[in-house]
Structures are given as structure tokens and as C-alpha cells.
Design a protein that fits this description.
There is one protein chain. The chain has three helices and eight strands. It is of the alpha+beta class. It has a single domain, classed as Nucleoside Triphosphate Pyrophosphohydrolase (Alpha-Beta Complex), CATH 3.90.79. Strands 1, 2, 3, 4, 5, 6, 7 and 8 form an eight-stranded mixed β-sheet that branches. It is globular and about 35 Å long.
């Protein structure tokens, strides 16, 4: 395993509203994912999670103070380390920066889990959903 300093650091949010979870398609349109992106210099993980959720899904909200966890996946010839937060959605916009690149959809718990292929992300989604009020 690579040392943590060599990971590509990313942050993500699991957007929730009532009992629904919002997922977006990957830029290829082939997979359902949560909004995530690289943590740019000068940005924090929470700032990045909020920014990516706006850009990729057109959602605004508040993050839970602590991340639900993290997972690793390989991309760009390296390993990405993704810190994941739960975001309580307060605003849903009809237009957003990546609307032409991605689809956005709301799913119930079982539908969301069935659409996530990344094992580490699916495990975190189970953990996050267990902690949400029903």
C-alpha cells in the first residue's frame, strides 16, 4: 500500500433530503456515484465536498460535522483517498454547472445501494444510511 502522502486526496458528500439520497452519474454516464472531487490547495475537505455537490448536482446544504468515513480507489495511475460526509440538502437548483454532463436523481435507501458499484463507497453508504433517521 502507498504511504498516505502519495494518495490523491478527494472529498465527497452523500446528499440526503427526508428519506431520499441523491446520486449523480459519472461523466461517462455509465455509473451512479456521489459528488466528489480533488481537494485543491487552500481548500478543506468539507469545502470541497460542498463545492462538488453544487457543481455536479446543483445542491446546497449543510454537512454533518464529522465525515462518515473514507475509501480508496484507483484512478489516474494512482490511488484516490476519498473523505465522505453526509450533507443535509437545503436547496435544490434546476440549473447547475455540470448539468449538461451528469444526470441527478433521488433514490430511496435500497435503490441507492443497488446503483452504487464501488464497494468502499457502498459500505460507507450503508453506514451513513444506518445513522439517518427513518
Amino acid at each position: 500500500m502507498q504511504p498516505a502522502a502519495n494518495y490523491i486526496r478527494q472529498a465527497a458528500a452523500i446528499p440526503v433530503r427526508a428519506e431520499a439520497i441523491c446520486l449523480v452519474t459519472s461523466t461517462s454516464g455509465k455509473r451512479w456515484v456521489i459528488p466528489k472531487g480533488i481537494i485543491d490547495p487552500g481548500m478543506t475537505a468539507p469545502q470541497t465536498a460542498l463545492q462538488e455537490t453544487w457543481e455536479e448536482a446543483g445542491l446546497v446544504g449543510e454537512l454533518e460535522p464529522r465525515p462518515v468515513g473514507s475509501y480508496l480507489y484507483d484512478k489516474w495511475g494512482g490511488t484516490c483517498h476519498v473523505t465522505v460526509y453526509v450533507m443535509r440538502v437545503t436547496e435544490v437548483h434546476d440549473d447547475w454547472p455540470e448539468k449538461s454532463l451528469r444526470q441527478r436523481a433521488w433514490f430511496d435507501r435500497s435503490q441507492a445501494l443497488a446503483r452504487i458499484e464501488e464497494e468502499g463507497l457502498r459500505d460507507l453508504l450503508v453506514k451513513a444510511l444506518t445513522d439517518l433517521p427513518k
